[in-house]
Amino acid sequence: MDTLNKNYAQRSEAYPVTATFMSGVFMWMFLALAVSATTAWLFASSADLMGMLYNLETGGLSFMGWVVMLAPLGLVFWMSAGYQRMSASTMILVFLLFSILLGASLSSIFILYTSASIAKTFLITAGMFGTMAVVGYTTKTDLTRFGSLMFMGLIGIIIASLVNMFLHSGTMDYIISFIGVLVFTGLTAYDVQKLKRIGSQVEPGSEGARKVTIMGALTLYLDFINLFLFLLRFFGNRK
Description:
By secondary structure, the chain is mostly helical. 83% of the residues lie in helices and 0% in strands. It contains nine helices and no strands. Helix 6 (115-138) packs across helix 9, helix 7 runs antiparallel to helix 8 (170-199) and helix 8 (170-199) packs antiparallel against helix 9. The chain is globular.
């Protein structure tokens, strides 16, 4: 009986810690989404800013456009590889810079799609993401194997997308998009459950906890953005 009481007390103490950790993760994720959305809208609303990213004569990316397109990927690798050496404050600055640059790179969607369809797709994405986040947080089922399957699907998407860059197949593009929606919907539940487990083990207020919070926010941010972009191919109305 004493052992059961001790275990119950330990679990009870872990719940507030986990909830605090997860609220921090979602707070930073939502902040990054707001920064990206604002940046994308500002660029799309300014011909001068868009002119920095695109060659107005050819319609292709300018040198600065290529930098903005590729830099976010480099920052993700930097944060992942330099996790042990970076301070939490540095990670926050890099994460916000990443959000700004990715927002600038996403500004083209306001040119390609109507604002109404973008808003509609965003709401659909938010609903699907929120539902799967709740599932991941509340389910008692271990999603580890499911997550591994989703990662295999993600690798398949990357390979298929590279191949389709040469084939230019509209049918394959829709198939990739459909699989992408399934993969990132599943990854949302898996990542939330994984972060919940991590949150129960971190020391509240510590440097390590702050760093893990930012990395968790980055993970969920990428899940949301990728889900949004794949859904936009189905629900976005081109101008």
